[in-house]
Write a structure and sequence with these properties.
Strand content: under 5%
Number of helices: 14
Helix content: over 70%
Shape: globular
Radius of gyration: 20 Å
Order of helices and strands: HHHHHHHHHHHHHH
Number of strands: 0
Distance between the termini: 35 Å
């Protein structure tokens, strides 16, 4: 797996992802604690609203960014967006009202909506061999998993000495370091085959995506993954702080369980995907994650920190198995010049799922408590699995999408 690090461009891009994710991980912990500081036991609702705003930015901005990205130098675009994110992160320690959090989150995530799909679409242009790209996907997932595992630990250690709002400074430093690493390499920027109008460029990715059977199946599984992760991200702080009555550091430990489970799956996936088709791996992962959430729902009245962490590890394992192979499906389903648009379509449509599920998770937790929300999330995830089984046939021989 590590042999692909001999490619200097990919090595720098992976390092940029790692440092940016570390900063983002610190911000995730700090944002949950900021929400609790501002709203107390209603933190789930505040955090759910903030994450809903994030999803609105993702859904609304990503297609527009993908359309204009065709006309821009990709490296310059990524660097500018990183610096915007760094500047916004510097403002977060100074907020004193909930509405200020909402405004800053919208600006920050609008920049991320332009950055992330363009960054993801660059990797298969750098690593053109599918086996290398598969390993790059697993390394990227490991980077995300290490962030989920190590950033909470780092946050827990820092919180022993500093207040939580200091963590946002680490977020800003991560984005600045990412910008420096991106600017240190030359990135390919495939040109569109033909000039297109703004409407065509804005909607082309979604039209290509929805015309491809395997990608419609991916969307159903994205719904399942979003269901599971919405519960973990939105409500862990309330489960730990309010229901279990534990400390801020315990929140980080519970979230580290999710990251640890995801990391184990990422280690196993490269060899597994060499032998087993993507569809089977992804459906199995979604099922494992759903069963983990079902276990948490059944034992919600007797949850402890070790038990919650174990269930979250199971959910994280399934989540990683479900989403890590998605880049392979997207790359197979589009020509190089269409990849940014198709990656942006996956980004937009998958985050549209979170747009529904984040506020739903926060509202159910605030109104009805842990048992109801975890049961509902389990059912929602199972619905996504059932839809994928119907939409995505076992023998997927569909050609790559070439026309909108």
């Amino acid at each position: 797996m590590l042999s692909i690090l001999q490619n200097r461009t990919y090595r720098h891009l992976l390092a940029a992802q790692v440092v940016a994710l570390t900063g983002t991980g610190l911000a995730t912990i700090a944002l949950g604690l900021l929400a609790y500081d501002l709203a107390g036991e209603a933190a789930g609702m505040v955090l759910g609203t903030a994450l809903t705003i994030k999803m609105v930015a993702y859904v609304g901005i990503a297609p527009l960014a993908a359309a204009f990205a065709e006309q821009l130098d990709r490296r310059r675009m990524l660097v500018v967006l990183d610096l915007i994110r760094a500047a916004v992160a510097l403002c977060l320690p100074f907020v004193s009202e909930v509405w200020q959090v909402y405004v800053l989150i919208f600006v920050l995530q609008s920049a991320s909506a332009g950055f992330t799909p363009a960054f993801q679409a660059t990797i298969p242009d750098v690593l053109t061999d599918e086996r290398d790209y598969t390993r790059a996907l697993s390394l990227s997932r490991l980077a995300v998993d290490l962030e989920s595992l190590l950033s909470p630990m780092l946050a827990a250690a820092l919180l022993l000495f500093v207040s939580f709002d200091t963590l946002f400074w680490g977020t800003s430093a991560g984005f600045v370091a990412s910008a420096l690493l991106v600017v240190s390499v030359i990135l390919p920027s495939p040109k569109p085959a033909a000039r297109r109008g703004i409407y065509d460029r804005t909607t082309r990715g979604i039209r290509l995506y929805l015309s491809t059977t395997r990608l419609r199946g991916l969307l159903a599984l994205s719904w399942s993954a979003a269901s599971l992760s919405s519960m973990v991200i939105v409500n862990t702080v309330v489960l730990v702080r309010a229901d279990l009555g534990l400390s801020e550091s315990a929140v980080a430990i519970a979230l580290a369980g999710f990251g640890g489970g995801s990391m184990i799956a990422a280690f196993l996936l490269p060899s597994l995907l060499d032998r087993v088709e993507d569809r089977r791996v992804m459906l199995t992962g979604a099922t494992i994650g759903t069963l983990g959430m079902a276990g948490a729902a059944l034992t919600s009245g007797a949850l402890s920190l070790p038990l919650l962490t174990a269930f979250w590890a199971c959910v994280g394992f399934g989540y990683s198995m479900t989403l890590t192979p998605s880049g392979r499906l997207l790359t197979r389903s589009a020509r190089p010049e269409d990849r940014p648009a198709v990656f942006a379509a996956q980004f937009t449509l998958s985050h549209a799922c979170w747009l529904v599920l984040y506020p739903l998770s926060g509202w159910l937790m605030t109104r009805f408590g842990a048992t109801v929300v975890m049961t509902t999330i389990t059912c929602a995830s199972a619905l996504g699995i059932a839809a994928a089984l119907i939409i995505w046939p076992r023998s997927d021989k569909a050609p790559s999408a070439q026309k909108p």
